[in-house]
Amino acid sequence: MRSSATLDRLWSVKLNIAYSQNIRTRCCLLTHDEWLVVDRNTSRLFHISKDGNVKASSAYNPPPFCATVFDQNMLAISTARGVNLHTL
User: What domain of life is recorded for the organism (predicted)?
Assistant: First the structure.
């Protein structure tokens, strides 16, 4: 994570996600300056705290493509089968 004003590094986190040229790792800003990292390679979601710690990691089936938040309490995760909605 970098500062938008200075581009100074605020924090970083190692997730052991393998690089794939064809499959991208996606990030989604959650409430309270927390992040959701979507790893399609391993079908996992990582919940990252605002200070860069992994709060939770969980498997997601079918493999997630990307995620976004609506109205601060609705999480949409797209997959090959469609879009799944979750209440935060």
Answer: Eukaryota
**40 falls within a domain:** yes
Note down pLDDT in tens along the chain; length 88 residues.
888 899 998 889 988 887 777 778 899 999 998 999 999 999 999 999 999 999 999 999 999 999 999 988 999 999 999 999 999 8
C-alpha dihedral over 54, 45, 67, 62, to 10 degrees? 180
CA–CA distance, 74 with 70 (Å, rounded to integer)? 5
Contacts of 42-47 with C-beta under 8 Å, sequence gap 24+, read 42/17, 42/18, 45/77, 46/15
Q: Give the CB-side neighbour count of residue 58, counting CA atoms within 13 A.
A: 7
Tokens representing 32? 């309270």
What is the residue range of 51's domain?
26-87
Task: Assess if residue 16 is contained within a domain.
Answer: no
